[in-house]
Design brief:
- The chain is an alpha/beta fold.
- Helix content is about 40%, strand content about 15%.
- The protein has a single domain, classed as 3-Layer(aba) Sandwich (Rossmann fold), CATH 3.40.50.410.
- The protein is built from 11 helices and 8 strands.
Amino acid sequence: MNGKLTLNLDKSASALRLALDKAGVVANVKAETAAVIDVSGSFEHEHEEGTTSILIERLVPYCMVLDPDRKMDVFTFSAGEDSAHYVGVVTPDDARDYVTRNIVERVPGWNGGTTYSFVLERALEHFGWKTCEEARRTSQGAGFLSRLFGWSPSGQVHQHGTPHTHDKRRSLVLFITDGENDGSDETRTMRVLEESQQRGDQVYFLFIGACEDKGVTFEFVQKIARRFKNTGVVVIRDLEAFVAQSDEELNATLLGPELVEWLRS
């Protein structure tokens, strides 16, 4: 399928900018962008056949228009803390076949289960909103060193290898999953998002639920979207048809009123 679909990302970025203009989003609005990708076993076919690679390619215009450095951070997850993994960045130049080249059978937790909370924490740490253990240690050390030498540390590298400045950065996180969160993780996920809202984190999570099985209702994600002002959900029943849409159709689906309002705020 990937070989049949040729995308002009510059044209797609222009279409997105036009959609944002029409929605009243100012031209200089910026937000770091990230894609969080579910690598649980049930999503294997879509990853291996390249459909999710095309989805990432279709999302890259969001980093071209919104991200200050025109790069989209990529995280993967399945079940448990060890599966929450920072893959790197995707750019317009290397977006084609990104998932098949960088993720399939290459990331921790490949073909595992599904828990949302740990990768949500990783994203919040990455963009500086949630204090990770290293930042806490750095801050404690900085207090002594700054008093002694008038010195303070700059960015560090996260214990899992994530380039990490600890600066707070306004961020749009596109969270792609094909199934419900494991019930054992629901309370923890809610707590992570509740704490984020209480802190006033400038992050918007758009959950993209992609599953052709109508028995998967994404009930938990719908609950999240209703409860928190900085979370939205889009449910896609035919991912191949979705990624083959026009730029205008795709943007109309993703740019819901709540996300537009967040971008305007």
